[in-house]
Amino acid sequence: MLIHQFFDYHSQRNPEQACLLFQGQTLSYAAIAAESLRIANGLRTQGIASNDRVAILCENCPEVLAIVIACSRIEAVAVPLNYRLAAPEVAYILNDAKAKILFAPDMALVDLLGKLRPLADAALPVIAASADGVENWQHWLSKCASTPVLGDDISADAGILQLYTSGTTGKPKGVVTSQRNIFALYTSASTSLKNKAGPGTRDLVCAPNFHIGGIGTLLLPILAGATVVLHASFNPMAVVDDLENHKIDNMFIVPAMIMAILDYVPNVEQRDFGSLRQLLYGASPISTGLLERALKIFKCDFYQCYGMTETTGTIVSLSPEDHSRALNGQPELLQSCGRPQAGVEVKVVDTSGNTLACGETGELLVRSEANMLRYYNREAATAETLQDGWIHTGDSAIIDEHGYIFLRDRIKDMIVSGGENIYPIEIENVLSQHPAVGDVAVVGVPCAKFGEAPLACIVLKPEQSLSEQEMVDFCREQLAGYKIPRQLKIFEVLPRNPSGKLLKKDLRAPFWADHERGIN
């Protein structure tokens, strides 16, 4: 099973059905199919071959779907780039991926593209909406034939996506996702979720397509022949308008987005969400208060989703029935991320790899056909994370007697803020370069709006000072905005054990003292 085969099935049987609704445009399955053929033929003309990387720099737009389908046709690998990163961070990913071509098909990121180009390989072909020193996207596309692409046999185990996730070394790693991984996710979701996507249903996608939560929620309804209302980025007013006007059936967002909708959209309680059947949320748990408010407004099924880029997205979910029980005498269920979806195995192990009994805390491991192929060109990291088919999540957890998974803490240092993964070492590497900083550690602390937020713990050099605003300004050119710490705490000395290892748990402990667990 291949992505383009499923897409072609729908485009041949329902060619005029709406595939994407985007900024007032209605794009049919036939139109996206034709564009994907042009791109595939154009890539071949550019010399792109099997297993070559095709980088994509844009906000959510129809071209992302067409490029991914085109890559499927020729067994290339699509690499959506995180446009929220600073230019040096994007350049690192572009170079690490060894991209053979860069597509920038919208005008939203012209400034970023301008900063990026001097940092990238000068020989890299760039096809962009802007014609400033690069080949224009529409002109390039007009030269490409829309004839069928005759390719060699393509394996279901061929890579189709390479999404970058931050790592404990401070450098992002490319997670290689196969066609088989995508269809394992598709099958698991189709079996596990009560409301199914298909011809005649509509999904709203506003999560960024460089995340598995964005590209996954774009691809799955399309594979089922549904219509996707695609947003370039998240805007609470626009989401509410389209939920109402386009009669959306399904939507995935993060709790911070739910909060923004409820807090910032005027008279949201008077809007008509009668068509919405299910709302999936992930990246962080939801508070009881926020859930109660959201259920009163949206009046639909809620699923909490847990997954990773390495698991191709959701592999554990808390069902609508679980949410109902949580609000009717079992509030502890909201502290669980749920139970495994169809086709997913989980276990908790100790540091020696021994499986632990119910209620015992250890590292959560996950096995399914959706588990990634590998980290790109990272053999040691792959061997550490993927062992005998099991993904080591880096999350400590317990599994109760009913199979519910309760996350306790992160074995690794990752911070999850508003659905974005942040590794402290990235921030520490930048702050250590500040002339006033003698020692630095960054930890995640509770944040009502985003779940967690980075806190910079700094030891100053003698006779030096540093304000929060000075810290923010220093980080701005080197880090994505969401990674920049807005909170600063000055220490005389940072806590370390006798061997010199930094004790981040000691730094975090006071901030999490009133919380049942050490993640939010």
TrEMBL record:
Residues in AMP-dependent synthetase/ligase domain copies: 8-376
Pfam family, one: AMP-binding
Keywords of the record: Ligase
Domain AMP-binding enzyme C-terminal: 426-501
GO biological process, one term: fatty acid metabolic process
Gene Ontology MF annotations: medium-chain fatty acid-CoA ligase activity
Protein family according to the UniProt entry: Belongs to the ATP-dependent AMP-binding enzyme family.
Name assigned to this protein: Acyl-CoA synthetase (AMP-forming)/AMP-acid ligase II
Organism for this UniProt entry: Zhongshania antarctica
